Amino acid sequence: MAENSDAKTLNMTDKIVEDWIRLVERNLIPDMALLVLYIIVGIIGNSVVLLVYRYEMKGTSDERYFIPKLAIADMFASVVCSVAAIIWDVNQIKFSHNILCKLTFCGLTVPASLSLWLLQCIAVQRYFKICRDHTLSLKVRRIMVVFICIISVILCFPYLILYGSNDFLVDGIKYGSRCGRLKEYAYYEAGFAYAILFGVLMILTVVALTFLYGKVGLKIFQHFKSDKCKKTQASNSTIPKSGSEENTDTPIEDKDVVSDSQVNIDIESRENENNLGTMCKAENTSERNGNLIEMNSEKQHKIVSNVCTDSSSGQKAVAIVSNKVKEDHLEKETDV
């Protein structure tokens, strides 16, 4: 009876474990489909970036140094991390290969940390370029890339020691194996501490990214704000005031009036000169009163010289000339 009850219990346990395994595998199908989508999008998107930088942006620029390398790292991460995650999902219950388990964790660690720290390098470069007005030399940029590659590989080594395949036991009976931290006490505690350390390191990297890009964004905002203020001041300075418009218009009108009056004076003076010339000829031909003719000629000569020299009082000179001409005609009539 005891043996029959133990057999029934074992059969029920086997059935429960098998149902649980099938449930886990069925629930992992959407996760694996999403990982396949990550692979496709990562390859296509980063390939487009590389092609654009290869054929469209042929000019060298210090700002473009890290972008192609980031595209390569992202493509590597999208493929390797997704494949490693699919392997881990497929062997969720039956991950018996110890070396493959260690390599799976390395495949998840190296590409992810490499991409994240390349983003950190880009943030540092932009911070020095925009906030400090300093350009990193090509040598410094190369050293940064080599350094983060070495650090990413070094961070992988603890997974090779502290992680591996563990048997999955139910009532002392092995039903499967899982990939994770080794169950031995020394390895398990060290693996737990390293997992915390790695997580804190990733969080600090994200905080540094946020800080650097926050400083860059603040600097750009201040720059655009100052440019906007300068444009506003320039536009205000170019708009004339009402008083200034009146002051600027008045002298222009005065200049126009003066120039017209000068032209009129010149024309009238020339006409008067012609009239005086004809009068002089008529008086010279007359034989009467020679002294009177000489006096009139002297007066006329003075009047003409005054007309030619006195340009500031041109209108008065014209009036004098016309009055004198009238007097001469009256004198001639009286003489006759």
From TrEMBL:
GO terms for cellular component: membrane. Keywords: G-protein coupled receptor, Membrane, Receptor, Transducer, Transmembrane, Transmembrane helix. Residues 233-252 are annotated as: Disordered. It holds the Pfam family 7tm_1. Residues 45-216 form the G-protein coupled receptors family 1 profile domain. The chain crosses the membrane at residues 32-53, 65-88, 108-128, 140-161, 192-213. The keyword Repressor does not apply. It is found in: Membrane. It is a multi-pass membrane protein. GO terms for molecular function: G protein-coupled receptor activity. Coiled coil: none annotated. It comes from the Eukaryota. This is G-protein coupled receptors family 1 profile domain-containing protein. It comes from Mytilus galloprovincialis (Mediterranean mussel). The lineage of its organism: Eukaryota, Metazoa, Spiralia, Lophotrochozoa, Mollusca.
